[in-house]
Amino acid sequence: MTAVLDRPAPSTPPRPRAVAPRLRKTLLVAGPLLILALSLGYPLIWAVSSSFTDRSGAYVGTATWQAALGDDAVQKAFVKTLQIAALSTAGCVVVGTFLAFVLAFIPFRGSSLVVRIIESVVALPSFLIPLALGVLFGPVGVVSSATGHRFSFMSSMLGVVLAEIAFYTPFVVRPLLAAFTSFPSAHIDVASSLGAGPLRIAARVIAPRVWPALAAAAALTFLLTLNEFGIVLFTGAKDVMTLPMLIYTKSMVSSDFATAAVLATIQLVLSVSAYLLYRTIVRRFGATT
Known about the structure:
Layout: H1 21-50, H2 63-69, H3 72-105, H4 111-122, H5 128-137, H6 142-146, H7 157-168, H8 170-181, H9 185-193, H10 198-226, H11 230-235, H12 243-253, H13 257-288
Helix pairs in contact: 1-13, 3-7, 3-8, 3-10, 4-8, 8-10, 9-10, 10-13, 12-13
């Protein structure tokens, strides 16, 4: 009788450990953040640090800031930038609310085509709007020439505001149209059966429900118009000098990069403030609706 010896089972090679899911997610997030920090963070840091130098690049502390903030041209450009952004936003809100209300509650043949045309404006370069309006209302435009140059206003602040309203109104129409179309029609029927008129229904029933979308759209439009450069440049309004235009003039024309860095930092603060306002409105009303 032979004894059978148990052979030891062959040892399997250890499997490589899989990367933990948390570590994998960290790597996926860290890569884009690193690229963003190098491509965006470094230029911002360089611009802010350059605002504390002079035209030769020597560190002068806050001397450049004091000179820039005390310049009348900078002060006027700052006020003009806020004025144009506020007027353009108000115009976009008025026109966009009217268009969205008509498209949502007053159906007509071709309304879908109108919506597509309004949406397609966003895909166009912004400078095409002042060029198109300049053909009509410019100094040598069709309407201006036909009326003896009585309606030549494209080279003024009014022309800049009208061009920005024409370009940025879709940013108000689309969110409001989505809010209007999702509004329960039963609420309107109940209010109408109780004797409420159209204006009262719009003010008391519809407006409270679409106010979050309107506020968010207005804040976003203000942010976009605050940084608009192409429309102001192609309008040809010599008396309209905004902060983006002044930054271009100081850096590219005058080669005063230190002052341009100061203005760019101011513009950055304005933009971040407008963005934080936009996010606050979205977060606040998004949590309550």
